[in-house]
Amino acid sequence: MNLKRHAVYPGTFDPITNGHKDLVRRAAGIFDHVIVAIAANPNKTPMFELDQRVAMARRVLDDIPNIEVRGYTGLTVEFAKQQGAHVVVRGLRAVSDFEFEFQLANMSRHLAVEVEHVFLTPQEQFTFISSTLVREIASLGGDVSEFVHPFVAEQLKLRAPLFARGAPPLPPGT
Fold first, then answer.
1. DSSP 22-40
2. How confident is the model at residue 74, as a pLDDT?
3. What is the DSSP annotation of 53-116?
4. What is the pLDDT of residues 107-140, one digit of tens each?
5. Which of 20, 45, 89, 90 could serve as a FRET partner for 127 with CA atoms 20 to 30 Å apart?
6. pLDDT of residue 165
7. Domain range spanning residue 12?
8. Rounded average pLDDT over 30-54
9. Is residue 13 part of a domain?
10. Is there a domain that residue 108 lies in?
11. Position 159 in a domain
12. pTM for this one?
């Protein structure tokens, strides 16, 4: 029996960082197919619209053959089931991430017992990078080129000054 191992790596990816790419690459080495699932997440105020985050992730991850990038709304476990994935990959940068991720995994197990959660830790040089810190640095005019793909750094230079002033996300295609 040849079972394909499909996984979903969800997040808001606002923006996608080098730490995210590290985890995607490592997950792609473990699973046959990985869907990078970019959440609309209406509870957050993103710097970039969902379509923009999907486009950035596709560009950043285009060298990894067994992944695809999709946007989604709703529950992650429901999205995973719809995609035929039985594994959700989550990243843990520090002990502080564990409590939230553990709680999330347990709640997800109650909602969909057939979907497992697997935790990966990034390489040491990526443990301090978060999308939140990247957005903050960019909004204050700092250099984020060490933390993100060059295309993402360009997009942040365009968007961050507007975001810092409270402007809504740019419409797709801008």
1. HHHHHHHHHSSEEEEEEE-
2. 93
3. HHHHHHHHTTT-TTEEEEEE-S-HHHHHHHTT--EEEEE--SHHHHHHHHHHHHHHHHH-TT-E
4. 988 899 999 999 999 999 999 999 999 999 999 9
5. 45
6. 60
7. 6-124
8. 93
9. yes
10. yes
11. no
12. 0.88
Phi, psi of 119 (to 5 degrees): -110, 135
> Does any domain span residue 174?
no
CB within 8 Å of 144: residues ≥ 6 apart: 134, 137, 138, 153, 156
Cα 143 to Cα 152, 157, 173: the distances in Å are 12, 9, 24
Largest CA distance in the chain: 56
19 contact partners, CB below 8 Å, separation of at least 6: 91, 93, 122, 126, 127, 129, 130, 147
Question: Cis link prior to 10 (omega < 30° from 0)?
Answer: no
Tokens of 136: 């903050």
* Nearest C-alpha neighbor of 81 from the set 3, 4, 5, 8: 8
pLDDT score of 2 more than 50: no
CB 134 within 8 A of CB 160: no
CATH number, residue 61: 3.40.50.620
How many structural domains does the chain have? 1
Measured between alpha carbons, how far is 109 from 131 in angstroms, rounded to an integer? 27
3-state secondary structure of 1: coil
For the cut 50, the answer to whether the pLDDT of residue 167 exceeds it is yes
